[in-house]
Amino acid sequence: MAESSSSPSAWSCAEVPLAALNYSVRRRLSLYLNPRSPVAPDWTTLAEQLGYEFLEIRALEGEADPTGRLLRDWAARCPARSTVGALLQLLRALQRHDVLADLGPSIEEDCKKYLERKRQEAEQPVQVPAVDSSEPKTLERQGITIRDDPLGLSPELFDAFICYCQKDIEFVQEMIQELEQTEHKLKLCVFDRDVLPGTCVWTITSELIEKRCRRMVVVISDDYLDSEECDFQTKFALSLSPGARMKRLIPVKCKPMRKKFPSILNFITVCDYTNQHTQKWFWTRLAKSLLLP
After folding, report:
1. DSSP letter string over the chain?
2. Distance of alpha carbon 236 from alpha carbon 213, whole angstroms
3. At what angle do helices 169-180 and 97-120 cross, to 10 degrees?
4. pLDDT value at position 90?
5. CB atoms within 10 A of CB 269
6. CB atoms within 10 A of CB 100
7. Of 60, 216, 286, 293, which residue has the fewest beta carbons closer than 10 angstroms?
8. Predicted confidence (pLDDT) per residue in 147-179, tens digit
């Protein structure tokens, strides 16, 4: 079967990390590779090509999404070699031209967004006006994010704090691409990316939500309901804006849920990523909400 001309060239994606691939591309890739097939190479064949041993592959078989877990593990093991270009070369070697034909345009678009983002990194991001505070500054609240002034003279500010659990990190990565790396040019505070290690989680979180971020996006899923950190962050933000009069908190449902939606958020309008009929408007609606004065 001939390879589709719509698939991106490996050289154009050679320096693009796997993190550039958004949530929907990863999900569709998993739909192709997760099913075990005697005919077409699946995720186990990909794992073998990546050098995984038998017992390592067996351990991944228990995962709900073995393809997604494999790619995350590969990126952690080999950060320099786990690029989109390398993944494309492997898919070509496995003759999965069906995957390349379907996902090629989306992968190429993700790579273009990533490369454009790298070109714009030198530009100073637009920040909201500094919020004056009568509270005295303490050393614990200085130098807490990667672009902070160590002396606390010009703290880094954000459009929104993202409240999420670790199992939803891929959705958060897509959010970064759609809101920061597009015409919206929002600035998000993502704890694992922006906060320096070695600080008190609760103190720094409250500082970021109350003083550094104009809004907070709450990424809702079944896993969110089990997170103590997310529960604290949500309740703290609600305490700052009783009845959501300031539109500070914006719930986002990122996955279908088996558990009951959190009752403390029932009175706030939700952005629902799982609704296929309104998904094409999802990112624009969310961006407009975050851009409100």
Report:
1. -PPPTTSPPTGGGTT-BGGGS-HHHHHHHHHHHSS--SSS--HHHHHHHTT--HHHHHHHTTSSSHHHHHHHHHHHH-TTT-BHHHHHHHHHHTT-HHHHHHHHHHHHHHHHHHHHHHHHTTSPPP-PPPPP-SSPP-GGGSS-BTT--TTSSS---EEEEEE--GGGHHHHHHHHHHHHSSTT---EE-HHHHBPSSS-HHHHHHHIIIIIEEEEEEEESTTGGG-HHHHHHHHHHHHHSGGGTT--EEEEE-S--SSPPPGGGTTS--EETT-TTTHHHHHHHHHHHHH--
2. 13
3. 60
4. 92
5. 12
6. 18
7. 293
8. 886 666 678 899 999 999 999 999 999 999 999
Quick check: 173 and 23 in contact, CB under 8 A? yes
Give me 95's structure tokens. 């003759």
Pair of tokens at residue 35? 């099913």
